[in-house]
Amino acid sequence: MTTKPKLCYFRGRGRMESIRWLLAAAGVEFEEEFIETREQYEKLQKEGLLLFGQVPMVEIDGMVLTQTRAILSYLAAKYDSYGKDLKETVRINMYADGTLDLMMMIALAAFKPPEEKEENLTLIVKKAKTRYFPVFEKILNDRGEDFLVGNKFSWADIQLLEVILMVEELDASVLADFPLLKAFEARISNIPTIRKFLQPGSPRKLEAAPR
How crowded is residue 204: how many other Cβ atoms within 10 Å of its Cβ? Predict the structure, then answer.
């Protein structure tokens, strides 16, 4: 019997959410242990499980993995979402890193003082519409394919959908000027494993994790 991956993080989105998305897209069931007390966190540190004293942490394939980017890269490769060669892989990395930049802006905004938060979120939506989404609209237009890389579903597609949904929580009309991204959102959301993850009651988190 195969052991399910075990995810250890705070109860919320944070840096773990993209990991949940990637596993869910691959159709992989996983378990979660939520850190809710300082004692839990200190216990992980004392046991030497947190390489750099940080979560997320994932137990998989007999390994204890930390550092978000390393975990995501491993899962993408393991579940055949990382391109067929180095040229495709580097493009997936570029696109995923771009979406991660935007995700972190949104995640960090949740911890801004109230008087700064609204202005910060407005700026994030503006950056999404002027810096990030035009890039992906152009990629879809230039390639004329359903997916971002190699006309095959990849980690880059998963993260682009994730960040689109995050920005739509701030501005539901954000894709009004991006018809190809709007079609992409509908197409990727309809992939069976993704559709399941988007349903109520799934492991998807709807709120930010504490820092």
Answer: 17
